[in-house]
Amino acid sequence: MTIALESVVDFLTDFKNTVNINLNNFIMKNILIFLAIATLLLTASCKSTFNASETLQNDENRKDLYQSVISDPIKLTEFLEVASSNKEAQMLLMKNHMKMMEDGKMMEMMKGNPEMKIKMEEKMQEMMEKNPEMKKMMMMKMMEKMQENLEMMQKMKEMDKMDKKHSDHQ
Question: Which of 22, 100, 117, 144 could form a disulfide with 106 if both were Cys (CB 3.0 to 4.6 A apart)?
Answer without folding.
Answer: 100
